Amino acid sequence: MWTLDSAATVPAWRSAPADPACVLAFSTRRGGVSAAPRDSLNLGLSCGDRPESVLENRRRLLESLALDPGALATAGQVHGTRICSVSRPGHEPGCDALLTLTPGLALAVATADCMSLLYAAPGAVATAHAGWRGAAAGMPTATLHALCAAAGVSADAVRVALGPCIRACCYEVGPEVAGRFPASAVRTAEGRSYLDLPAVARLQLLEAGLPPGAFEDTGACTACEPYWYFSHRRDAGRTGRLWGLAALRPGDHPPPESTGGRRL
Questions:
Q1: How far apart are CA 3 and CA 101, in angstroms?
Q2: Predicted model pTM
Q3: Fewer C-beta neighbours within 10 Å, C or N terminus of the chain?
């Protein structure tokens, strides 16, 4: 079960109950210092915001999750399927997923409609970014396989969480995109096609051996809820970035307490 901790100073989606071994979280757009149209918790440095505002937003989010802002790894995100294994902070250009076996190192992927996927296995975590291109190329499954290899486990030892993203209610696509996906993941209405990215991810992961109960979804649509989320499509590109975050919890850092909120 996932909870949007809407009453928190820095609201975020977290798994409930909290996992004692790892931190998994999805940000919202609330609780930061950025000015419109990237108000207020914009976490992206490449979308025209003041760098000092973004760094303050990052600090607020990470500290709210009992994570060290100085121990952060980020991905360059090029809509591909390259996965980087990291053991120290820094920026990894040219990849769309990160994995680590290092406790205390936070992994972040940025989104504003695309999927952010968080993976947890004994002794390892991963984060992945996937829009329609990444989904069509099999990024959800590629990250699962990479994490299993790194952790030395099979897929039935992994759980995957999907954060806020654009959903079939809002994601209209052309026939050239719709045709790349199973018919069960495409909704048609009045001659238009709408892609269900979460359904694509779920289908791929289950086919790769992930147990059905190990796929968790916040159910939130970025395009539908402007109060909570940035959406590149809805906002015509003038918007901020959300994060999907994963970290192995250091032994001396217990899970932070939730203040309550929406549950899914």
A1: 26
A2: 0.94
A3: N
